[in-house]
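Okay, any thoughts on this one?
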Amino acid sequence: MRTIAGTAGLLRSYDNILILTHLRPDGDTVGSAAALCAGLRALGKTVFLLPNPELTEITAPYFQPYAAPEGFQPQRVVSVDIATTNLFPENAMPYADRVDLAIDHHPSFERFGRDNYVRPSAAATGEIIYDILARLGPVTAEMALPLYVAISTDCGCFAYSNTTAYTHAVAAALIQTGIDVQVVNKRFFRTKSRKRLALEAAMLGAAEYHDGERVAVLAVPLALMERFQAAESDAEDLSALGGQIQGVDCAVTMRELRPDVWKFSVRAGPRVNATEVCARLGGGGHAAAAGCTVEAPFEDAKRRMLDSIAQAVPDFTL
């Protein structure tokens, strides 16, 4: 694996670059990609982001200025914040065996690039991109704004356990460029649509508790989304909800993507290793936050997840 300096040098040697983001793009993949694109363009490179069909109205403004025009043919392909090629959007699949450089921070990263840089201790891939850009030249406000989006969203506005002193140091350096972080904080952390509030109320009302009420399971079936006519932007980061319940140290959010196809998001404290839980079901992530997808009816999918948690936690009780 390359060092930060080596990764920066590699990027300096590239041109005509296409940057890939992951399925159901979050702030980290979008912000990291946009900032890297801006930084490489500052060096005179031709760089674009592969359009992602699942952008929401919240993340799209940071992505769209860098979207590739139709027909762009890259010489180099870079992925950011993608642990496995299974997380490539459909339009990125043709590049699955063409990734020249993969940059990530997930412990479950599968090193699918010709060159790879992974730092599991980073709170977000945005931290890594900051270190790379700082070696390529000044980090400007244009780069700093999406980087702040990347880092702040992946550490819950600096409230999650993955936040470190270095996370705060990078955020401070970004703020010093003059960016308006209040707009970002309001947009991502302090604003909810009425449909979002209705979704949360319904999820909490139907929540199930297991393991002495230490494990909460919250479901978002397709019928619930249809009931409130909710859009993807209304459902963004619903996985953070369960962890706010007093006494819960493992929150499981089940989101139905298609009939009987459930995307699990697990948020856990020290007692439960979320990566270990999700790895048994074909997923991965971090110790405190991981995910997987299970194709099964609701009750069966839920039971598989609870069984996986029980295997990871010696004192689990039904």
